[in-house]
Write a structure and sequence with these properties.
The structure holds two protein chains of two kinds. Chain A is mainly α. Chain A is built from 15 helices and two strands. The mean pLDDT of chain A is 96. By secondary structure, chain B is of the alpha+beta class. Chain B has a single domain, classed as TusA-like domain (Translation Initiation Factor IF3). In chain B, 43% of the residues are buried. Classes of the chains: A mainly alpha, B alpha+beta. At the A-B interface, strand 2 and helix 9 of A face helix 1 and helix 2 of B.
């Protein structure tokens, strides 16, 4: 049976292929799977923002969570833990999401855009790497959000429970939610396909610990390529899919659901890269970790959802026309806040270790 | 005395970073690491193995004791 690098490579190829299949069957172009976009659409579907083109409870989200939850239970890797700077993680998720929506996509969508020839996404990748390098700089200076502690197993059931209820309502009482009739959120793969794909992604990502911040971080910090096999797998499968489908145009201008303002593509992803490095993983990883019982990650997901709502309520998110002044101010302000958090918590690990030593 | 690195409750990449520092400082001998997540366990195992240490994993009440020797 496959394991290690082989398994995560196959998982990456599968996730990339599923993203292409979801796009073919109705999800938006270069957005077959995007955790940030889908959490933002979910926020819209719940009425948390009023961008009427971005409202749909994307079934992929509860499916990924429930798939990962089931995989964690079956393999006995479920552990309810929490209490590691929970509110700070909420804030970093919130701010990181604004960066993602200024770029227009999470690292997963960045890969899909890169594989379709969207050069703006390659600029985003450079920004993401810059943000991760800044995060590593803080981590090497002793930045830590502290230890999580074991909790009663029931606490970890809350998040999968919430999304199970959401899925139940979507299936059996769907009229209570908002649905876009035009724009990206009106583009939907069939419900059962979205659910099936989400379940597979959740299971594979849980078993392989797939992440799209970790690959770059681990390669730089430890020359450890393990997670990179998954990231490259996603890219290669999506590249092949896009080439076969003829959805491959190299250029900056006119790319689907993208803008070509290089500075803000760079800075948006740099902000996201730094924020998500501090909380130890990309939005997909946060969802998987939350499904495995990490209640800090669960709270982070609500930070991401509310960050998405704020980004649209206050005009911070970019559109294909570009990035608004509000969005530019928000990115700069976000960078300032995240840097303050970074400096404030640098050296925290040294204190923590000293305490352990002195204590025993 | 065997040095113990307690990685419980820490998120990536802190467990790897702490173990890496310890095995670099020591160079050889025995290092014990305690992990309480699959991610930390696998990451420590991979890191130590890549640096030429042998790793023994003991499963103890939802925690793992990793004994690294070189």
């Amino acid at each position: 049976m496959l394991k290690g690098k082989g398994l995560i490579t196959v998982a990456g190829l599968t996730v990339g292929a599923l993203a292409i299949i979801l796009m073919v069957f109705g999800n938006p172009v270069n957005m077959g799977l995007c955790i940030a976009c889908f959490l933002r659409d979910t926020a819209g579907g719940l009425g948390l923002h009023s961008a009427d083109k971005l409202q749909y409870i994307r079934p992929e989200i509860p499916a990924i969570i429930l798939g990962a939850f089931a995989a964690a239970l079956v393999t006995r890797s479920y552990r309810s833990v929490g209490g590691s700077s929970t509110l700070t993680r909420f804030l970093l998720g919130f701010i990181g999401m604004i960066g993602l929506l200024v770029f227009l996509g999470c690292p997963l969508r960045m890969l899909l855009r890169m594989s379709a020839g969207d050069l703006n996404a390659w600029v985003g990748l450079v920004g993401l790497i810059a943000g991760i390098v800044a995060g590593i700089w803080f981590i090497n200076r002793g930045f830590t959000l502290g230890r999580a502690v074991r909790q009663n197993a029931a606490h970890g059931y809350v998040l999968p429970g919430i999304f199970l209820v959401l899925l139940g309502l979507l299936l059996f009482n769907s009229t209570i939610f908002l649905y876009s009739s035009e724009g990206p959120a009106s583009m939907r793969a069939p419900l059962l396909l979205s659910l099936g794909a989400g379940l597979v992604v959740g299971i594979l990502a849980q078993r392989t610990r797939m992440c799209l911040i970790g690959p770059i971080r681990d390669l730089i910090m430890f020359r450890d390529p393990y997670l990179m096999f998954g990231m490259v797998g996603i890219f290669i499968a999506a590249l092949i899919g896009n080439l076969v489908l003829g959805n491959f145009t190299v250029g900056f201008e006119g790319q689907p659901i993208a803008h070509s303002d290089g500075l803000w593509n760079f800075l948006g992803m740099a902000l996201a890269g730094l924020s998500f490095t501090m909380i130890a993983g990309c939005p997909l990883r946060q969802m998987i970790s939350a499904s495995e019982g990490n209640t800090d990650s669960a709270v982070t997901i609500f930070g991401i959802i509310l960050g998405g709502a704020a980004a649209h309520n206050f005009g911070l998110a970019a559109s294909p026309a570009g990035v608004s002044p509000n969005g530019q101010i928000a990115v700069v302000a976000g960078l300032v806040v995240v840097l303050i958090i970074g400096f404030a918590l640098s050296g925290a690990r040294v204190l923590q270790q000293r305490r352990v030593t002195e204590g025993g | 005395m065997v040095n113990t690195v307690d990685c419980r409750g820490l998120g990536c990449p802190e467990p790897m970073l702490m173990v890496k520092k310890q095995i670099e400082v020591q160079g050889k001998g025995t290092v014990v690491a305690i992990a309480d997540s699959e991610a930390a366990r696998e990451n420590i195992k991979r890191l130590a193995t890549s640096q030429g240490w042998t790793v023994q994993v003991e499963d103890r009440d939802e925690e793992w004791i990793l004994t690294l020797t070189k």
